[in-house]
Amino acid sequence: MGPKPAGQKSLYGPVSYCRVMLLILCVDLDDDLGRKTACETPVVGRDAVEAAAVELATADPEDSDVNVLFEGVHLYDSIDDETVEVAAVTGVDGSDVAANRAVGEEVDTVLASLSTGEDVRALLVTDGAQDESVVPVIRSRIHIDGVHRVVVRQAQDLESMYYTIKQVLDDPETRGTILVPLGILLLIYPLAIVANLLQLPGSALGIISGLLGLYVLARGLGAEETLDRTVDRVRSGLYTGRVTIITYVVAAALMVIGGLSGVQTVETMTDATSSIAAVVAALVYGSVQWFAAAGVTSSFGRVTDEYLSHSFEWRYLNAPFYVLSIAAVAHGVSAYFLGLATISYLAIALTAGTLLGLGSTLAFAIAETRWQQADPVEA
């Protein structure tokens, strides 16, 4: 297929009298076309270039030179106001000097094959700056009207980056990991400005560092999953009428009171010269009764819920007795270390705590065994 003649509409049909031929040169500097296909270069003519593009696309669909060849064919088909020809020239896979020399030789071959007396001008089609380095070599042989760079809409790197960012923003876990610390960091400057206006610069930095520290600590310990599960259980408990919601709140209040009571006991019964053992004993002595009350309250709430859900077992009743046993032992030991109890009281507390735990375990084990044996008879 030879050059496409120019066509100009008039009252008498197309008239062909252009004096310039436009040569569309598809440049493949590293010779992907020659290395990956059986095509001999240079390739001259629309049909030959199209066939070469199809062959290269079949051999390597990801090669950007495929788009260069098809773009050359597209430009050939879209230009109808002047004589036009399309050709593909290649270099070599090596140094730029050798590649440019090879392209120059193939351009000479293309120009020699054009049987025309018209002035030939070139339009280069490339896929990037590397192929455009051959422009001076081609310009020394033919006038260049322009360089057309083919830009693929879905470049692999850009597309991968876009979808990666989109996936990160759509993933709740990843979004929380990246965006929450970034948001806290971005809030540092405006919070510092507000703190300066309020004359509280130290407070602002302390709050920011505290929030960031709590977030990092929660992420490191996996506390966010525990918190999510706790919130779900509380929500479920509120809707299903679980008694443990109330007992846990009461137990938490009792533990707070116990902690404050323990601190007051430490301040009252110790001084700066007291040993660490004395401080710990005072803390336990002042808080153990409140902690025991909290444990018994929460355990009875759990037992009640198990009974209401028809999953009650006798051994569940061991929990409050175990709490009382531990509380008795802790109270006796702490009182003895503080000098508030004799060795006899300590022995009684240890014995009572041990017997209470063992007795409850044995009693409820027997009750559970007899209950299970009685069920088939009743059925």
Mean pLDDT over the residues: 80
Anisotropy-based shape: elongated
Total domain units: 3
Helix content bin: 55-70%
Q: Major sheet: order of its strands?
A: 2-3-1-4-5
Q: Provide the β-strand percentage band.
A: 5-15%
The unreliable regions are 8-18
Q: Biggest β-sheet: count, sense, barrel?
A: 5 strands, mixed
Q: Please, how many helices?
A: 14
What is the terminal-to-terminal distance?
97 Å
How many runs of DSSP E, i.e. beta strands? 5
Rg (CA only): 44 Å
Classification by helices and strands: alpha/beta
- SSE run: EHEHHEHEHEHHHHHHHHH
Question: How would you describe what is shown here?
Answer:
- The chain is 66% helix and 9% strand.
- It has helices at 32-36, 46-59, 65-78, 96-113, 135-139, 156-170, 172-186, 188-197, 201-221, 223-240, 244-269, 276-308, 318-337, 343-378, and strands at 20-28, 43-44, 83-90, 119-126, 143-149.
- The protein has a five-stranded mixed beta sheet, sandwiched between helices.
- α2 (46-59) runs antiparallel to α3 (65-78) and α8 (188-197) runs antiparallel to α9.
- The chain starts with 19 loop residues before the first strand and ends with a helix.
- 26% of the residues are buried.
- Mean pLDDT is 80; it is low at 8-18.
Task: List the keywords.
379 residues, alpha/beta, 3 domains, 5-stranded mixed sheet, 14 helices, 5 strands, 66% helix, 9% strand
Q: Topology of this protein?
A:
Layout: E1 20-28, H1 32-36, E2 43-44, H2 46-59, H3 65-78, E3 83-90, H4 96-113, E4 119-126, H5 135-139, E5 143-149, H6 156-170, H7 172-186, H8 188-197, H9 201-221, H10 223-240, H11 244-269, H12 276-308, H13 318-337, H14 343-378
Parallel strand pairs: 1-3, 1-4, 4-5
Antiparallel strand pairs: 2-3
